[in-house]
Amino acid sequence: MPLLVDTGFVFALADRRDAWHARVRTYLERLPQALLAPITIVPEVAYLLRQRIGVNAERAFVASLATGEVSIEQLTSRDWIRTETLMSTYENLGLVDASVVTIAERLKLTTLATTDRRDFGIVRPAHVERLLLVP
Q: pTM of whole model > 0.70?
């Protein structure tokens, strides 16, 4: 089963200075899994990598997508509807985070690799009481 990831997790993996970097690396070393990213996190990750680390980090991320190191999950028409519903239900949940929850629901994934405990911690997905937030 793939590990669903959000923007913060991917960024922390790339940025050695990030407070979450060591935890993210250790988690992946202990439990190696295929990484699955909703398409909606891609521009956000690319932007953060370029702005905070540099163009080479952004290129490395794109290369990881091209080689399948990180798989991308597209959103369906129904996913967009569910994403909007989640945004309406949880005012603090923006498009990207709501789409991550939507993908978790559709694929029946129960674990989310994230650095965002505040926003994802309050969400009650349709398929489980709570997502297991790692690392």
A: yes
